[in-house]
Specification:
The structure holds two protein chains of two kinds. By secondary structure, chain A is mainly α. Chain A has helices spanning 3-15, 22-51, 56-69, 71-96, 104-119, 127-156, 160-179, 214-231, 233-243, 245-250, 255-282, 293-303, 308-332, 338-352. The longest helix of chain A is centred in the first third of the chain and has 30 residues, at 22-51. Chain A is globular and about 70 Å long. Chain B has 14 helices and two strands, in the order H-H-H-H-E-H-E-H-H-H-H-H-H-H-H-H. Chain B has a single domain (4-306), classed as ABC transporter involved in vitamin B12 uptake, BtuC (Orthogonal Bundle). Chain B has helices spanning 4-37, 45-63, 66-89, 95-114, 137-142, 147-165, 167-177, 179-185, 189-213, 227-237, 242-256, 258-264, 271-275, 277-289; strands spanning 128-129, 144-145. Classes of the chains: A mainly alpha, B mainly alpha.
Chain lengths: 369, 307
């Protein structure tokens, strides 16, 4: 948007006796509602812990120390947040169009597998070539997989939530079939894996931060998606579709194509997450790829209300919770599902907080200022 | 050359497998059917299924009576479904997303409290031998059917009658089909949906009890393979008709039994692919029952997936 338009728009607003602080009050409402929800979830979880005879303050203290307390734990948190940034985008991009796509997990594992397989013939060439091919193959595979869901939704009217989940199970089956079949390295006995991409082709760490490049890649992806959604005409068309699909169709917007595009881009992000897991952590594709990143991404996207910039802090928060899980298990003797209980409570509370929007008069636009 | 006796074995094993594994599909789909008839969708039944399985197994272990476990599973399901029903009654809350949250919360709670019950073995539900007349152990084994299966069929018939012939059933259908009509008649929309969701989840909880107390008959974290979510597709396939839910469950059960049946005759190739058969069936069912965005015959008018 050009500067002149902004000035003109604000002048129009002033002439009409417009409500100049509304923009900020709306932002405040959007920040406060999830904060209240998070707080409510923490209180609920504290009651849960108290009922079990555990101390909530100990719990929060351990989460803090396990997630952000030391340089090591912070690195661990960021390492976990990296794939979550990308899998959350896989939910947020279609989410902007009003779709609930929850099959990101399959895009992660199939993306990781495609990237590995594409890299195998090239292992003795230049690492940069290998990485480029891996990123392309992983993103293409992920995009294809979630794009299929979008196509089913747009062309055949199949409900995308169920379709994406069913496709996630089918994708996992195909992954297992291939990894334990044609692509299996006979040397991997206990844990069937593909051949490795070789140490020379592993991604190193980012200078200064000492974390793998998944974080910068994820951050760049989030920023690009934000620009796409909020600063381009395609993104605007998508948001119109999400707001009211009939209005979008009436305006002649290519709704079906927008849906497929959002799903393909989201899937490409998830596929990239799988690629980075292979290239930076695992070195090969195996069952470790299915670490639940796709499912945690759903929660993050909803926490961020499908805004890619808000995904970043939320991914760090959830990555931190995951990183603290081990410490909680050792120090408090809590089962590893504790984090999942807390996540579930956060999820329920954040969705329930949707009802708060528009309830408080002060946040609403004022007609007569 | 196809070996005919092998084919027979596979068909027989699929039939037996269908009788064995269709029950959880049946209960969850009946529960989902009830909820959806009131105009709301509950994806949280997957979490209810897992929670029901854990509660049933734990209660059966503690009390020594598996039927108390089944009852406890129904109550646990009702509570979790009640949370879904209550929160979805608030304005602007998306029931599809909320279902995913309930699914996550339900499985989390089940894994949290279920950890001590992974090892011990609880008393399981007995099977009803339908093949007392046969001498073949194989046939006897195949026709050893869970009492819950018959309970499920009875529930389906009862629900069919309930929707067709009772005042309350009609009210649920009105609330699900047209909010305006329900308002005009002064029906309590939110309360109806809340109760339909809670009762539907109680049925789904019984489906979970079947998993842990009959087949596979143990409690562990990988017990459910998404039956709770597939039930949503199954209800679409069954056109929101409880009787059709029985047939659809048997079909899904047979698809699930395909992989193990092929293994019995020595086909080991593609184990994982055959394992995915019920999901492929679900997808095909979704595609053939979709009408390019138009609402389907029999679909409750207020259902959010019918947008």
């Amino acid at each position: 948007m050009s500067e002149a338009t902004v000035v003109a728009a604000s002048q129009v607003a002033r002439q009409a006796g417009g409500d100049r602080t509304y923009k900020w009050r709306r932002l405040l409402e959007a920040l406060l509602a999830p904060l209240v929800a998070l707080l409510a979830a923490v209180i609920l979880f504290s009651i849960f812990l108290l009922a079990l005879g555990q101390s909530p303050t100990d719990f929060l203290d351990l989460v803090w120390r396990g997630a952000f307390g030391s340089w090591f734990s912070l690195q661990n948190t960021l390492q976990r947040a990296a794939p979550l940034l990308l899998t959350a985008l896989c939910v947020a991009l279609p989410g902007q169009l009003g779709l609930v796509v929850i099959g990101g997990e399959a895009a992660v594992v199939l993306g990781g597998l495609a990237a590995t397989v594409a890299a195998l013939p090239l292992v003795n060439t230049n690492p940069f070539l290998v990485w480029a091919v891996m990123a392309l193959a992983g993103a293409a595979m992920g995009g294809l997989w979630i794009g299929l869901t979008g196509w089913l939704r747009a062309r055949l009217g199949v409900n995308e939530t169920i379709a994406s989940l069913v496709l996630a199970y089918i994708g996992m089956a195909i992954f297992n079939h291939l990894v334990e079949g044609v692509f299996r390295d006979p040397a991997s006995l206990n844990k069937p894996s593909t051949y490795g991409i070789g140490d020379a082709n592993m991604l190193g760490t980012v200078p200064w931060l000492d974390v793998h490049p998944g974080i910068p890649v994820g951050v760049i992806a989030c920023v690009l998606c934000w620009v796409l959604i909020y600063r381009t005409s395609i993104g605007f068309a998508g948001r119109v579709t999400g707001g009211n699909i009939r209005a979008a169709q009436l305006q002649g917007l290519p709704v079906a194509r927008l849906i497929v595009l959002a799903c393909v881009l989201g899937g490409a992000c998830a596929g990239l997450a799988g690629t980075i897991e292979v290239a930076a952590e695992l070195g090969r594709a195996n069952a470790s790829l299915a670490a639940g990143y796709g499912y945690t991404g759903i929660l993050i996207a909803f926490l961020a209300r499908f805004n890619p910039l808000a995904i970043m802090p939320m991914a760090v928060l959830l990555g931190g919770l995951g990183a603290a899980g081990g410490l909680l298990q050792r120090r408090m003797g809590l089962p590893d599902a504790t984090v999942q209980v807390l996540q579930g409570m956060i999820f329920v509370s954040i969705l329930a907080s949707d009802t708060l929007y528009g309830r408080i008069r002060w946040f609403q636009p004022r007609a007569d200022v | 050359m196809v070996d005919l006796s092998a084919l027979e074995t596979v068909a027989g094993a699929m039939f037996a497998g269908s009788l064995r594994v269709s029950t959880p599909f049946l209960f969850v789909s009946l529960g989902e059917c009830l909820t959806e008839k009131s105009g709301r969708i509950n994806l949280g039944n997957e979490g209810v299924l897992v929670l029901g399985a854990m509660v049933a197994y734990g209660t059966s272990y503690e009390t020594g009576n598996p039927w108390v476990g089944v009852l406890a599973a129904a109550i646990a399901g009702m509570l979790l479904g009640g949370v879904h029903g209550a929160v979805c009654s608030l304005a602007k809350v998306n029931d599809v997303a909320m279902g995913i949250a309930i699914m996550l919360a339900g499985t989390g709670i089940a894994f949290f409290f279920g950890k001590p019950y992974v090892q011990p073995s609880a008393p399981l539900l007995p099977g009803i031998p339908l093949a007392w007349w046969s001498d073949s152990a194989q046939v006897r084994n195949a026709l050893l059917v869970s009492p819950l299966f018959f309970l499920g069929i009875a529930a389906a018939v009862a629900m069919h009658w309930f929707f067709r012939a009772t005042r309350v059933g009609l009210r649920i259908r009105i609330v699900g089909d047209s909010q305006d009509a329900a308002l005009a008649l002064g029906l309590p929309i939110d309360r109806t949906r809340f109760l339909a969701t809670a009762c539907g989840s109680a049925l789904a909880g019984v489906g979970g009890a079947f998993l842990s107390l009959y087949y596979p008959g143990s409690w562990n974290e990988g017990l459910s393979s998404g039956q709770g979510l597939m039930a949503v597709a199954l209800v679409v396939f069954a056109r929101w008709n409880p009787i059709n839910c029985v047939y659809a469950s048997l079909l899904f059960g047979a698809a699930g039994a395909l992989g193990p049946s092929l293994q019995t005759v020595g086909v080991t190739w593609g184990y994982y692919l055959f394992y995915a058969a019920p999901y492929v069936v679900t997808l095909i069912v979704l595609v053939i029952s979709a009408h390019g965005g138009h609402s389907l015959r029999g679909m409750p008018g207020q259902l959010s997936i019918g947008r």
